[in-house]
């Protein structure tokens, strides 16, 4: 069998429970029959993975070999659901009795999901999706910029071309999945709308402020040049209102926000989706 590491565009990983093991409360990665171990089987693993998805609409990014807790080699395929968040992906629950999504950066490396250790899952994530980035940290973050394709792409370009050196995110965007708030020295990955990493950032400074004080904080810090809009508060109010509405969260002027200063430490080459040919 082959294990599937399936990510939404915010890099939440899919974990499931099998209907065949009702007494087992352990979560594990979805499995499919591995065509690589059957030379006469020309089925693409992507087709096999459709057993669990309606519709799948995911892209195969790469594969790697890991050793399970029994020191046996296991194949892991990493799939990405381009532009889709976990709430937008449908499943066929005739195969699984329960599913959950966990942000990849929230997985405790000391845990074990069935036969695969959490540490192996994180290592697979780095090896396949972030294979150009040698520096690894146990705690890392994903930029929370999920407020529309057009906005995300413009936002990313401003960061990549040095027109913006501050991230402004709601604390709620972290607390929703019990993710830790970034700290100075942490790494953060900037993703495209599809969910492909385009840059690694290092956090150089952090401030927690009420939403209402964004304008004054930016002015006092001398970073007004980083923002095209004259009214920064109104710009982010629209952004956060969209996010709160989508996630059934209340919005108020005193909502706490995270203001992060950062520097770019790595730009990733453009990765082509579906480049891997499996026969």
Distinctive features:
alpha+beta; 30% strand; globular; 5-stranded mixed beta sheet; disordered C terminus; single chain; 4-stranded mixed beta sheet; 6 helices; Sulfate adenylyltransferase
Describe this structure in words.
- The chain has 6 helices and 13 strands.
- β7 and β8 (116-117) form a beta hairpin.
- The radius of gyration is 20 Å and the shape is globular.
- The chain is 20% helix and 30% strand.
- The chain has helices at residues 45-49, 118-129, 149-160, 172-175, 214-221, 232-246, and strands spanning 2-7, 12-18, 31-32, 59-67, 73-80, 96-103, 112-113, 116-117, 140-142, 166-170, 187-191, 197-210, 256-267.
- A 5-stranded mixed beta sheet has the order 9-11-12-13-10.
- It folds into 2 domains: 2-129, Nucleoside Triphosphate Pyrophosphohydrolase; 140-267, Sulfate adenylyltransferase (Roll).
- 27% of the residues are buried.
- The chain is an alpha+beta fold and 279 residues long.
- The longest helix has 15 residues, at 232-246.
